[in-house]
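Pilot study result, target chain (239 residues):
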Amino acid sequence: MSHLRRMLLLVSLVVPLLAVSAGCAGETAKRDAATAKWRDSFPVDKANLADTGRNPYFILEPGYRLVLEHGKDTLVITVLDDTKVVDGVKTRVVEERETKGGRLAEVSRNYFAIDKMTGDVYYFGEDVDDYDNDGKVAGHGGVWLAGANGARFGLLMPGKPKVGDRYYQELAPGVAMDRAEVVSVTEEYKVPAGAFKDCLRTRESSAMEGGSEDKLYAPGVGLLKDGGFLLTKVEKPKR
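Predicted structure:
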C-alpha cells in the first residue's frame, strides 16, 4: 500500500471518530448544563453588604426609577430613600408599582443589599399589597422576609454574570422559590427607551411552579424587559 493510500485510509478512519467525539462532548455539555445545581447557599460576609451601590446591570441608588409599559399596563420601579433592617442587614427598599388597565394592581416593597466587594445583589424579601378593582387592598400574596419562618436571602443578580450561572433569588419554602439562570451576556435588544448592546438575559422559573420567563438587563441601565413589559423611560437621581 502506498504512503498516500495509507494516509487517506487513516483520515477516513479518524475523521468519523472525531465527529462522534465532538458530538458526544456537545451532548455532554448540554446535559451538564441542564442538570447543573441551582445555588441556594451564599456564604457572604454581611459586613460587606451595603444598601446603596451598583453593578453593571443593577442600580441601587435612591431616586433611580425605571418605567416599563405593556399596552395600557405599567410597571414603575423606584429605588426609595427608605431602608429596612432584615435578617441583621440594612437593606434598601425598591418599590414596584404595577397598574392594569389604568388601575393600581400591586405595590411591592423589595429589600436588597449589594456586596461592596463583588457587586452581587442579594434579595432579603418583600412586602406586598394586592389591590382589587375598587382600589382597596385585597391581599398580601408572596410576602416573605429572610430570617423569618425558615426563609433565607437569595441572590438577585451576580456582580459578574456568567452564562450557565444558576441561583435561587428567593428562598422562602411554601411561599416563594424563584430562581434564575444566566442565558446570555451579549444580547442586542431594542425597546422604546432605546437600543442596547451587551445585554444580560436571564431565564427565571420557580421550584414551586412550572414554566419560565426571560428578563433582559442593559449595562448601566438595568431592567429592559420583564415578560411583556418594555422599558420606556429612565429617571436618574437629581444631584
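One observation from the pilot: Residues 3-11, 28-34 have pLDDT under 50 and may be disordered. A full batch analysis is planned for the follow-on phase.
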